[in-house]
Write a structure and sequence with these properties.
214 residues, mainly alpha, Four Helix Bundle (Hemerythrin (Met), subunit A), 8 helices, 79% helix, binds protoporphyrin IX containing FE
Length: 214
């Protein structure tokens, strides 16, 4: 048991490092501000790899920097990080769309572009659907426990969509031309590993709650 505890703590420390490292790497590579396009990979990685992962890790029983704080504080930090994440995602979408418009290119022609658009729409909806968790009077006839469960499940789906969009972004001509093969594989590992850890965290919390209720 002790062994698996240390193991889990090790995993979450690794995920913090991976998210920060990956975001820094894409930031350095794209040099935000050097062109309108450069904002797209930078803002999207910031939104989905750094901010959204940290927003969910806040609730991790092992890897949360706020482990000893009350649940209310964790909820507040989660809320702020997710607002920042959605803002970056919307700005990142605006940057690439406007860049394509200026260059007279067709929109949403690749799998990355299509899934990316869906991802941004889903995270905006997910955020709006989370408002009743703060203002509970808005959720008439729904118990808070039920709302939280739906929020966690649909939040996990949004996170996985984000991870797949990031991975497809790494397959773009821009990124494959910017890095060598082994760097590409290392980069692709980042969203893949984070997705596994987040999936593990959310399903564990969900399964544990279900057991308590039945
Ligand atoms: C979850 C994160 C991401 C989302 C939601 C996303 C979303 C999008 C969308 C919607 C488009 C199409 C815009 C249009 O057609 O008007 C697009 C294009 C593009 N994205 Fe991303 N993106 C993400 C991450 C990345 C990353 C990390 C990179 C680079 C490493 C990247 C590189 C590109 C490139 C080169 C294009 C233009 C070519 C194309 O349309 O496929 N994206 N992205």
């Amino acid at each position: 048991f002790l062994h698996s505890e240390t193991h889990l703590r090790g995993n979450s420390a690794l995920i913090h490092l991976i998210c920060i490292g990956f975001s820094l790497f894409i930031g350095l590579l794209s040099r935000p501000g050097s062109s309108l396009f450069s904002w797209h990979p930078f803002l999207m990685t910031l939104a989905f790899s750094f901010l959204m992962t940290e927003a969910i890790l806040v609730f991790s029983p092992h890897g949360s920097p706020l482990k000893r704080f009350p649940h209310k504080v964790k909820g507040g930090v989660h809320w702020i990080l997710q607002c920042l994440s959605v803002s970056c995602a919307v700005l990142g979408l605006a940057a690439i769309s406007y860049n394509k418009f200026l260059n007279g290119k067709a929109h949403f022609t690749s799998w990355h572009g299509l899934l990316g658009l869906l991802t941004v729409c889903v995270v905006v909806l997910q955020s709006l659907a989370a408002v009743p968790l703060i203002y509970q009077t808005l959720a008439k006839g729904w118990s808070l426990a039920k709302l939280k469960r739906y929020h966690a499940a649909s939040g996990l789906v949004s996170y996985l969509l984000g991870s797949v969009s990031l991975l497809l972004g790494l397959r773009s001509a821009w990124f494959t031309a910017s890095v060598r093969e082994h760097t590409w594989y290392l980069s692709a590992l980042c969203p893949a590993l984070s997705a596994l850890v987040i999936m593990n965290q959310v399903t564990r919390a969900y399964v544990a709650k279900k057991r308590l209720q039945s």
